[in-house]
């Protein structure tokens, strides 16, 4: 009886107690917090799906005047899953929509413990070491920060499914039998398909896995498990590109990254790579040639259309992270103001919103596994577990991507937890002072990281400013169906709370929205209101929301106006720079014919066009 309890105790801890702890941690933010910014847009669409049984098509509250084709740019799986959860929560527990959606995000974040447990076990960690990895995953601030209840976003369910894809793949690579490897590879591919139905970010994972497989294939012939996983990944990626509307409309099946994954999966099945007699140089030449040809074909075919819109934004992320700004890219100024696209300095990995006191294990964990592999055999790359190499490779790639754009830290957190659990098991097996010190040091590091997570979560403030809430109430009371021009980051809340179309909002992939953001910024920074009046007349805009002066920097960045540098250096605006339309509206609040002020509260002002024809 005791031995049976001993076998099941770590599983119960990882599958029940740890997720329960993670759920409570993610529900720590005060109940007064609202769904704001991006979360406001997601809540509106989920509420529409719950009430009407379908999403608006087209969405008349976005991209006026024609409305937005949601399926062209967005994976719609989040809205379908969250609506189903909300209906079930209301029927079973009587939860209202707000409470149900908070629980949906928090639970998706807490369940990360389960795939992490399986991943650690695949790396030969014992049951208790795997349970420790699961605990670390749910308390890492890098993961908690973006999966708390008010963070109604793609990140929590997307990371859960993306991590499931990775960990099932790692388990497939480590499987003892070919049949088990094929089964786990198929389940991994299914998780990838579901992840892409919810979130776009998992698109970065198949190329990473393919690159790791290609590198290992140069060292030794690929094992059947690797071939099975890469083949299943390529099939899932193609099915997603053809079956998911946003990828089909973006022609992502022709993207160089997609074709490179397919090429590597095919190359691993080539007889020259599978033969034990093949030379590393020959295998490397075959794999490299396949990648180059696939990338060249993709670059030649994937031109124009929606794919270029998505591709341009992805390239801009990398450019901005390296501090390179291309003047030819009109959206550069906007993306420079997006916090999640900012690079993360290496020192910030140890910050309270990243990896806290566990950051040093980013180096210690791979080092411990390397030492363990060296002690078993001399040639590490040839003898170490392929699952360990895969996990280390994915972690390294995601760490680099996190330094480029800090949002990727949520994807980095689960494999880091897996490596720490596996390293703890390696230290426990290794007698000596170093192993004992490492195990003892790990305990307070986990506790301090959990403390940072709790402080971050409990201090999270997404409450709507009273002044902004009053402005939304005014807009809702005077809604007449015409678009409202406001800073793009406020657009989702205008669409939800003011029940009015937003001239621009946060979906930066939409070409219509991009044009609206840039046109509005340039018109607001003109010396006379003529450009703004012409823009509003062309698009049927009757009201303009002018935010407080601290929003001027974002407007200047969107317009790529030189005054952005002056504002960033905290210098006063002088001469013509202080005589812009929006500056006068912010500072004085007087009329700017044909615009007249009709509402003001705490620095938020609403201007109306006095010459606008009545709405029929």
Automatic annotation (TrEMBL):
It comes from the Bacteria. Keywords: Membrane, Transmembrane, Transmembrane helix. The chain crosses the membrane at residues 100-120, 126-146, 158-177, 189-216, 228-247, 253-273, 285-304, 348-373, 379-403, 410-428. This is Uncharacterized protein. It comes from Eiseniibacteriota bacterium.
């Amino acid at each position: 009886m005791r031995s049976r309890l001993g076998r099941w105790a770590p599983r119960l801890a990882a599958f029940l107690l740890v997720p329960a702890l993670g759920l409570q941690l993610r529900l720590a933010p005060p109940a007064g917090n609202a769904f704001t910014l991006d979360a406001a847009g997601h809540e509106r669409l989920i509420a529409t799906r719950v009430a009407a049984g379908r999403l608006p098509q087209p969405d008349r509250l976005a991209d006026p005047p024609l409305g937005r084709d949601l399926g062209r740019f967005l994976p719609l799986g989040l809205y379908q899953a969250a609506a189903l959860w909300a209906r079930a929560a209301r029927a079973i527990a009587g939860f209202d929509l707000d409470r149900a959606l908070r629980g949906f995000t928090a639970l998706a974040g807490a369940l990360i413990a389960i795939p992490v447990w399986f991943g650690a076990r695949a790396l030969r960690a014992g049951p208790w070491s795997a349970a420790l990895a699961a605990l670390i995953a749910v308390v890492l601030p890098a993961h908690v920060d973006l999966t708390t209840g008010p963070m109604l976003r793609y990140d929590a369910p997307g990371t859960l499914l993306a991590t499931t894809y990775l960990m099932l793949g790692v388990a497939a690579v480590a499987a003892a039998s070919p049949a088990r490897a094929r089964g786990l590879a198929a389940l991994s591919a299914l998780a990838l398909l579901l992840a892409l139905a919810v979130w776009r970010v998992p698109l970065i994972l198949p190329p990473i896995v393919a690159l790791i497989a290609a590198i290992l294939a140069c060292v030794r012939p690929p094992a059947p498990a690797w071939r099975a996983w890469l083949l299943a990944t390529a099939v899932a990626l193609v099915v997603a590109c053809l079956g998911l509307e946003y990828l089909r409309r973006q022609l992502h099946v022709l993207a160089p990254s997609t074709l490179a994954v397919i090429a590597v999966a095919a190359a691993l099945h080539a007889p020259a790579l599978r033969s034990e007699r093949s030379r590393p140089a020959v295998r490397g030449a075959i794999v490299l040639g396949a990648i180059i040809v696939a990338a060249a074909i993709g670059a030649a075919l994937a031109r124009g259309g929606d794919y270029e819109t998505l591709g341009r934004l992805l390239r801009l992320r990398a450019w901005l992270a390296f501090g390179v700004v291309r003047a030819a890219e009109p959206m550069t100024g906007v993306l420079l103001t997006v916090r999640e696209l900012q690079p993360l300095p290496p020192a910030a990995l140890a910050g309270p919103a990243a990896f806290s006191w566990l950051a040093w294990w980013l180096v210690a964990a791979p080092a411990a596994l390397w030492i363990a592999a060296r002690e078993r055999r001399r040639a590490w790359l040839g003898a170490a577990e392929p699952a360990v190499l895969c996990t280390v490779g994915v972690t390294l790639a995601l760490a680099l991507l996190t330094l480029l754009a800090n949002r990727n830290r949520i994807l980095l957190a689960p494999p880091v937890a897996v490596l720490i659990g596996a390293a703890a098991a390696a230290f426990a097996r290794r007698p000596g002072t170093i192993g004992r010190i490492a195990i003892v040091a790990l305990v307070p590091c986990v506790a301090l990281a959990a403390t940072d997570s709790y402080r971050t979560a409990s201090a999270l403030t997404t409450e709507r400013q009273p002044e902004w809430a009053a402005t939304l109430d005014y807009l809702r009371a005077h809604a007449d169906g015409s678009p409202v021009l406001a800073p793009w980051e406020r657009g989702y809340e205008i669409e939800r709370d003011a029940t009015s179309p937003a001239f621009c909002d946060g979906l930066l992939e939409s070409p219509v929205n991009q044009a609206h953001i840039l046109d509005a910024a340039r018109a607001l920074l003109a010396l006379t209101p003529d450009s703004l009046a012409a823009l509003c007349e062309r698009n049927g805009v009757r009201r303009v929301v002018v935010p407080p002066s601290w929003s001027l920097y974002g407007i200047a960045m969107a317009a790529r106006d030189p005054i952005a540098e002056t504002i960033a250096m905290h210098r006063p605006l002088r001469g013509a720079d202080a005589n812009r339309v929006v500056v006068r509206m912010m500072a004085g609040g007087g009329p700017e014919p044909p615009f007249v002020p009709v509402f003001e509260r705490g620095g938020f002002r609403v201007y109306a066009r006095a010459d606008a024809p009545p709405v029929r």
